[in-house]
Amino acid sequence: MAMVCLLDFEAYAEKYLPKMAWDFFAAGADECSTRDENILAYKRIRFRPRMLRDVSMLDTRTKILGTEISFPVGIAPTGFHQLAWPDGEKSTARAAKAMGTCYIASTYSTCSLEEIAAAAPGGFRWFQLYIHRNRAVSKQLVQQAEALGFQGLVLTADLPYTGKRRNDVRNGFQLPPHMKLKNLEGAFEGNDQSEYGLPPNSLDPSVTWDDIYWLRSLTHLPIVIKGILTKEDAELAVRHGVQGIIVSNHGGRQLDGAPATIDALVEVVEAVRGRVEVYLDGGIRKGSDVLKALALGAKCVFIGRPALWGLAYKGEEGLQDVLRILHDEFRLSMALAGCASISEIGQDLVQFSKL
Amino acid sequence: MAMVCLLDFEAYAEKYLPKMAWDFFAAGADECSTRDENILAYKRIRFRPRMLRDVSMLDTRTKILGTEISFPVGIAPTGFHQLAWPDGEKSTARAAKAMGTCYIASTYSTCSLEEIAAAAPGGFRWFQLYIHRNRAVSKQLVQQAEALGFQGLVLTADLPYTGKRRNDVRNGFQLPPHMKLKNLEGAFEGNDQSEYGLPPNSLDPSVTWDDIYWLRSLTHLPIVIKGILTKEDAELAVRHGVQGIIVSNHGGRQLDGAPATIDALVEVVEAVRGRVEVYLDGGIRKGSDVLKALALGAKCVFIGRPALWGLAYKGEEGLQDVLRILHDEFRLSMALAGCASISEIGQDLVQFSKL
Amino acid sequence: MAMVCLLDFEAYAEKYLPKMAWDFFAAGADECSTRDENILAYKRIRFRPRMLRDVSMLDTRTKILGTEISFPVGIAPTGFHQLAWPDGEKSTARAAKAMGTCYIASTYSTCSLEEIAAAAPGGFRWFQLYIHRNRAVSKQLVQQAEALGFQGLVLTADLPYTGKRRNDVRNGFQLPPHMKLKNLEGAFEGNDQSEYGLPPNSLDPSVTWDDIYWLRSLTHLPIVIKGILTKEDAELAVRHGVQGIIVSNHGGRQLDGAPATIDALVEVVEAVRGRVEVYLDGGIRKGSDVLKALALGAKCVFIGRPALWGLAYKGEEGLQDVLRILHDEFRLSMALAGCASISEIGQDLVQFSKL
Amino acid sequence: MAMVCLLDFEAYAEKYLPKMAWDFFAAGADECSTRDENILAYKRIRFRPRMLRDVSMLDTRTKILGTEISFPVGIAPTGFHQLAWPDGEKSTARAAKAMGTCYIASTYSTCSLEEIAAAAPGGFRWFQLYIHRNRAVSKQLVQQAEALGFQGLVLTADLPYTGKRRNDVRNGFQLPPHMKLKNLEGAFEGNDQSEYGLPPNSLDPSVTWDDIYWLRSLTHLPIVIKGILTKEDAELAVRHGVQGIIVSNHGGRQLDGAPATIDALVEVVEAVRGRVEVYLDGGIRKGSDVLKALALGAKCVFIGRPALWGLAYKGEEGLQDVLRILHDEFRLSMALAGCASISEIGQDLVQFSKL
């Protein structure tokens, strides 16, 4: 089976992963309309490609929060990588480093932050945080991440409770007994791990914007907020001093009916007016999607499920394949659109289709 | 078979109900385009969810016409519940009471109003009225309902004649001989019950707005008008002194080509300008649909077919399951959209998709 | 098989007609997109139905060019009725008369005008005319129609040449040898009847607006022009003194890509500003379609293929069934929309869907 | 199998060509959305046909760059015609000449320019050019084409690199060993012909608008630029002195997500304001498509894949069949739209559908 595009990796993962794991990774909330819209929305955006520009030298490098990456695609935070590949997040960390890009490690990793850091020393990584009712747990994770060289803190804002994913309910989704949420081992009393490996109600749904100040007090790391979909929240994020915003609907796994991220990006970018960096995740399946997101103002995008498909295919090597294909496709799309470098990608490169 | 969402109950009902009963409940007029639009229209509405609001305490309670309900979903008036479950409307009344919400009992019930009232004493109920040519019949029903503790009168305005439901014609739909329209027993002469259990032409198609005054003269109950789809009729309803409006197209069973209720809601709410309460039925299939309707100005929604599916599944218990799922989904949607209580649900929470 | 709606007659005709006849009747030009749009366009129009109007007495009668018909649906001119039923246009004439409506007999009838007139004496009929290169033929037909009591002349404007209907080409469509274009027998020299029963190039593609004056000089009958789709041509038609306009795209059989007639109706009605009557054919499949067309300004609609399906089902009786169903559905739609008579049907009854 | 419309030729080619050849001809970039949009976009354009115009004499002739062609459809440059028919481009040249239209011979022909010229002496031909890193190759081709009587030079601007066509990658597309890029034999060192018959990186991606001046210095032939999709590039093309613009997205084979050419045509025509001729290729499948393109301002259109299907069917004869069908359909569409000659085709003949 030739692995030509990301959909080949998706087909592989669907075929070879255990059904419960595949369903968990593929899941969207309710009817999955937001999950599917994340992809469909790209098809409604048309390029306005420019011709006869010198595209003999193509430079895909960019910087996020001051650190250079080889191309504007990082790894979004997703949980439970051991469900996809035995080495789990260690493989992810190695692949991201090898490809010169950023990996956002999830709180819900099946490897510990130490293991991740040790697997790919010097790799460019951010740490994704959920705030738990037991704030001591969260505080410790933040400080551990900073000590281990993680260079940014990503606060997920869209999961005060877990979305309703019908297949997970039908399957009675459980982590296999030999997998642990390594970063949270011993953090909670009792053995009830019925909700995605944690006791129910461990997350704190009372978190508000003021908790950004609390986070700020814990760490010198830049804070990025993930899950913003409106101009109002984008303005609040800027005012509360974050360094970056990830436009995200959690892969369509939280509130079904939320807009596609590429659609929401427009209003967030407009509200932010360049004061902080704006990123996006959700629906990226080929290099031209990346180009569209950048044209609409994203500084970088992050991939979630495609990274898991890469892991499911061949672990570290498979994820590198996924990233390499995206890199190649993105570079080719840039060239065919007449852009030799990231700075030449502007808003006049795209238009929304009337359809 | 796990009952995870309302569609599971629909599948169950389709599988286990007699074809004639299923077809009757499922029927829409003509090509069923309005019936189907009721559902599709929700998919064109996108949320604008807000993040980092304290949603640790969620309150789904609201009031309709001054009476508190546990969440803004009631039971719409539908006929012939014994077609779905032997205990018929008695089960419906018990389930609604158990779940703390409002049940609008239909004129076309297969249990009498006394039986309904006795099945769930103290339950919050309204009575739905058709006006018959024989006005004495209607008058008696109104006064009986008031005497039995029903707290509101719902006048159905969109059925001067019955819509054309092709499958009912093909099936030669008839109530089984052991079922009766208990509230109308003896009301009409002769035995011809060829039109949905009644003699043809028993309904009065000459009813006009002035009959609201006649109804008002019969009862102290608040009057709610059901079947309004335009701003013009909404204005007339307010001027004629009703206390509430149910935006409804009769589940798409009357005039095929009428708009989806969620689409019509916008113009009705705008015309009413808060002078009376506005409700909606039609197309509610999950908690987020309820949230969309409330964001667009509905005070409460009512479910028709899903209630019948619940009855078909397990009677009173099945209907409670349906209501509980909707309640849970609605509460979760509120939380994920950043609303801790009904009063925080506003119009800026949604936008109509360009598609 | 219960005949509940017009689609049942379509299914019957498709099943029982010879393939070549079915294909001929069903044919659209090229990709049939206009043929299909004629139907789809109705689905994009929504009613704004009004409630609580006295609809106890429903009057569907209207007048076209001064003559009363029982409801605003006539029989559009279509050719070769013997392909559908042995008695051909004689059956059509009888059914139209029995149902109290207008029948536009085609030049391409397989019965002669005399036979048609004799089959249903006193019936309300118009005669549809193509102008042939041999003007004497056309002149004689016009004068014969007038003499036989036809009350209007319908000039088809959209067939300077016959559209390309792929299946007719594939089938090598030919009239069976025992059928003749009775009105044109002996009109043309030679035996080549390769193009729909006529010699190729018998039609005159040089006809222009000035030929209206020529027609006017031949007859006292009112002239209706059929095939108008633009405001510019509507204005020209009025200026050239026609009494009526049929908005038509020839059932999608001529220029594929022409607009649906219900869409074109809007611009024609606006241009005409009530100076002449405007009718429509194409895509009428149920009573609510008629109501939509009238709300948008049509005085009457005409059915083409559904009439042929009725003939194919049971000749005169089958066509009466079709008309009766349409009449019943139209009357019911009127009532459910709050209109007791034709004069109450106005433009505010409909709106174009955003979809 | 009757060959009634172009889709019949497509079906034939898909059935009888070797899979690798069919896939190569059919290929679009990435998800083929632009390839498919090229066709779908025509379905969103509606005619506004005019009636009762004298269309007895139909004249489809037009001129491009001063040379008359029998109707406004030429042969777009496509490569590797021997994959479709043994005589390759020689057959193409003969068919184009026989039908009185223009053939744009590709740099990537499997016959040499001499062979093409000799196959159909006196035929109206343009030569399509890619600029290679080895400019001497390109220079020689230009001068050879001019010497051989080619009357125009078409510079392809949208292929600095080859687009990603998934099936070609899966198939490991290679020219069969007995086919050669005859115009480039000996032009490049080494035997690596892994990229569509050429060594990788033989094309020059550093070409800019200034190279138009270089081309101009090589030849007296008029220069047409192919691959323009925006008003900005159209303006640049005019300013750099080209004589014509072909609005093209390379059949959807280069940047997936580029607009349908019929959509892009509008903005290019508007920008050009008649200063140079504008043509179009992509998605032409029937005569009415040609009419739509001309109504929107194209002077002529070119067909790519349909020409190859014609070759695959019966070589020169099959391509003539394709052209004859298009000619007949175009002429009929003109007549049915009320246009007797090309000059009568104007922008008010079409409108974009709201859908």
TrEMBL record, chains A, B, C, D:
Cofactors named for this entry: FMN
The protein's enzyme class: oxidoreductase
Enzyme Commission number, as recorded: 1.1.3.15
Catalytic activity: 2-hydroxyoctanoate + O2 = 2-oxooctanoate + H2O2; a (2S)-2-hydroxycarboxylate + O2 = a 2-oxocarboxylate + H2O2
Alphabetical list of Gene3D superfamilies matching this protein: Aldolase class I
Domain FMN hydroxy acid dehydrogenase as annotated: residue spans: 1-355
InterPro entries for this protein: Aldolase_TIM (IPR013785), Alpha-hydoxy_acid_DH_FMN (IPR012133), FMN-dep_DH (IPR000262), FMN_HAD (IPR037396), FMN_hydac_DH_AS (IPR008259)
Residues involved in glyoxylate binding: R165, H250, R253
One MF term in the entry's GO annotations: FMN binding
Record bears the keyword Transferase: no
Active site: H250 (proton acceptor)
GO cellular component: peroxisomal matrix
Domain of life: Eukaryota
Gene Ontology biological-process annotations: fatty acid alpha-oxidation
Binding annotation for FMN: 77-79, 106, 128, 130, 156, 226, 248, 281-285, 304-305
Annotated keywords: Flavoprotein, FMN, Oxidoreductase
Family: Belongs to the FMN-dependent alpha-hydroxy acid dehydrogenase family.
Protein name per its UniProtKB record: (S)-2-hydroxy-acid oxidase
Organism, as annotated: Chrysolophus pictus
UniProt lineage: Eukaryota, Metazoa, Chordata, Craniata, Vertebrata
